[in-house]
Design brief:
It is built from seven helices and seven strands. By secondary structure, the chain is α+β, with helices and mostly antiparallel strands.
Length: 231
């Protein structure tokens, strides 16, 4: 028995585990290098995609300004004025084109004016040329706090306007929602331009303050096109 134990101890003591350990560590290092390479590749691809998004956003702004024979005015970081009635805001993967209601509609109306049709024809053509880069289009209707004379609520008025824009882009411009997601919704008077989407403390008092002057109300009555870009 002692002889067998001694033989086992000699065999164990003579076993050289360093080559196996070295192989294991080499494998771990190779795996780490591969993971780092993949992460860098993903980050690089994402950076390229974001640059492409920015390029498409700025191209739309530039071409829109050309149509109106003007130069985009930098209002704030990533915020551009094309005219007094058109403002464009760029985000990382989102572009928001805001139209004053008076550019597209008559007072308390939801049928497009001739100027509104011309504007949406131009903008719609620009959007159509970029549909390969846009995953979704949202059309949002907004109002001020003055009561509508034609509808029971401003929610309905803003909704009718959003649907009118939706129908025009679909029927007149030729954007097919079956191929390119497009939706229409209404916020009524409840989302003035100054309201933050993440402000959970917003109240009716804030809403009244955000509609306390004619200038503020004019800005709140608007249609917004939200373009969500692919990355």
């Amino acid at each position: 028995m002692n002889d067998e134990t001694n033989i086992a101890e000699e065999d164990f003591s003579s076993f050289n585990f360093w080559p196996s350990f070295a192989d294991l560590m080499l494998s771990v290092v190779l795996i780490l290098v591969l993971v780092i390479f993949l992460v860098l590749a993903v980050l690089a691809a994402g950076s390229v995609n974001l640059k492409l998004v920015e390029s498409n956003q700025m191209e739309i702004i530039s071409k829109l300004a050309d149509v109106y024979k003007t130069t985009p005015v930098v209002i704030d970081t990533h915020k551009y004025g094309i005219s007094n009635d058109i403002i464009v805001v760029n985000d990382v993967t989102l572009q928001k084109i805001s139209f004053s209601d008076q550019l597209l509609f008559g007072r308390d109306q939801y049928e497009l004016t001739e100027e509104g049709k011309q504007t949406l024809t131009v903008v719609g053509g620009l959007l159509k040329s970029k549909l390969g880069f846009i995953r979704e289009i949202q059309i949002q209707g907004h109002a001020d706090t003055d009561a509508s004379r034609q509808f029971k609520t401003n929610l309905e008025l803003a909704g009718r306007r959003a649907m009118t824009v939706y129908s025009f882009l679909q029927s007149n411009v030729g954007i097919n929602p079956a191929q390119h997601l497009m939706s229409a919704t209404s916020f009524g008077e409840y989302k003035p331009v100054t309201r933050s989407e993440v402000d959970m403390s917003y109240t009716g008092k804030n809403l009244m303050e955000d509609n306390s002057t004619k200038e503020k109300k004019d800005k709140n009555r608007r249609i917004e096109l939200l373009l969500f870009y692919l990355i």
